Amino acid sequence: MMEKDMYPILKKYFENKGFTVKGEVNDVDLMAIKNNSVVLIEMKTSFNTLLIAQGIRRNPMGDLVYLSIPKPTDKVLKSRTFKDKCLILKHLQLGLILVDTKYNTLNFWLDPTAYTVRNRKKKKQALLKEFHARTTDTNIGGSHKTKIMTAYRELALLALDYMKNEPRSTKALRDYTNRKKVVDILQKNHYGWFNRVSRGVYEITSRGKDALQAYEPMIKPLKEAYYKNNDDSNKD
Q1: Residue 197 and residue 219: Cα distance in Å, rounded?
Q2: pLDDT computed for residue 218 by the predictor
Q3: Which residues pair with 195 in a beta bridge?
Q4: What is this structure's pTM?
Q5: 76-115 tens-digit pLDDT
Q6: Is pLDDT at 236 greater than 50 in this prediction?
Q7: Are residues 97 and 8 in the same domain?
Q8: Residue 115, in any domain of the structure
């Protein structure tokens, strides 16, 4: 398929909407005008960086700017790469039109409207909460396919280490960690490290013992940092 194969389908659609349409106006693939409203469309046979850059250059020229590509397969539409590209377009306030040349139809996948990040405050607070809840900084930025040390995992490891020699009560664990959340960690048992012995009393499982060995190099600095932070807080 070529870009020129998409042009007549796009042209017909906008003309049916009452627009006057012309192609290749100062290098713009398609320009449509209606009541002084200017719509610009750049076409490519693939959703690539060149097409996005063209859209950015056209943005100051028109009221609405669309990128247009042949309709991808359902697999592509569901892919992370495609969704990431669409996210970029949203931030750039560019629209996206998918053209099905087999059936001569259009799918307005994205509208070129102002994009605002919803729940910005909520997402920011979630990041800040995780940042401040972390006791250590053992993660290396940019790492992939490695276990990330989260605030949740840190607290679970503190509990695991405290219980390594004998079962402990939830009250003792709350007092030891100074965190109410530790009870939630024991009850939900996300990692399979804990087992309820009786009401309010837990022990570690065989998976918990394996985790103690696997995380042994991290537990000592975790405890040191945790105690230091608690001491500093008490001084305040």
Answers
A1: 24
A2: 85
A3: 203
A4: 0.61
A5: 999 999 999 999 999 999 999 999 988 999 999 999 875 5
A6: no
A7: yes
A8: no
* Structure tokens given for 81: 């790469």
Overall domain count for the chain? 2
Residue from 86, 95, 80 nearest 10 by CA? 95
**Integer Cα distance of 12 and 16 in angstroms:** 6
Helix %, strand %, coil % for the chain, to 5? 45, 20, 30
Pairing between strand 194-198 and 168-169? unpaired
Q: How long is the chain? A: 236
44 lies in some domain? yes
Count CB atoms within 10 A of the CB of residue 2.
10
pLDDT greater at residue 138 or residue 99: 99
Sole residue written with tokens 């990128």:
67
Judge contact between 159 and 173, C-beta under 8 A.
yes
Residue holding tokens 């960086």?
A: 49
Answer yes or no: is pLDDT of 222 > 90. no
In the chain, the amino acid numbered 107 is N
